[in-house]
Specification:
alpha+beta, Sufe protein. Chain: A, 3-stranded antiparallel sheet, 4 helices, binds zinc ion
């Protein structure tokens, strides 16, 4: 079990050190920002749509290790998804971080199961996912640059 815990910690550290899809997406047509004032985290998610699906996704933000690693992981999980698919993935992620339930097979998302023991950090872990679903619900806008 401790091997698995180490593996999960390694996943979170890796996403912190080498965040995926970080930085503003210049051609984004939808975006949304979330704040978690109790911890000082913030996150803006940018989307470029491909029809009903997320074509490209990126995030910008700052905050604690959990919030930044979760944002990075979220971009890898939601790319290519529709709004209903993204909401389903977010639902599964929320279930993992609130109950500590781990999927049967290894998935990077399970690295966040340990968060359930620290209820104050659940908002950190879900911040970017909230922002992504919010962004998906926005009308298309003209890219700002
Ligand atoms: Zn935080």
């Amino acid at each position: 079990m401790s091997d698995l815990t180490d593996l999960y910690q390694a996943v979170i550290l890796d996403h912190n050190k080498r965040p995926r899809n970080r930085g503003k997406l210049p051609q984004a047509t939808r975006w949304a920002t979330g704040d978690n004032p109790t911890c000082g985290d913030n996150c803006t998610v940018y989307l470029e749509m491909d029809g009903e699906r997320i074509g490209e996704i990126s995030f910008e933000g700052s905050g604690c290790a959990i919030s930044q690693a979760s944002a990075s992981l979220m971009t890898t999980q939601l790319k290519g998804k529709t709004l209903s698919e993204a909401e389903e993935s977010f639902g599964e992620f929320k279930d993992i971080v609130t109950t500590g339930r781990e999927p049967e097979e290894f998935n990077e998302v399970a690295a966040f199961a340990g968060v359930h023991a620290f209820p104050a950090r659940i908002k950190c872990a879900t911040l970017a996912w909230h922002a992504a679903v919010d962004a998906l619900k926005q009308p298309d806008q003209i890219p700002t640059n």
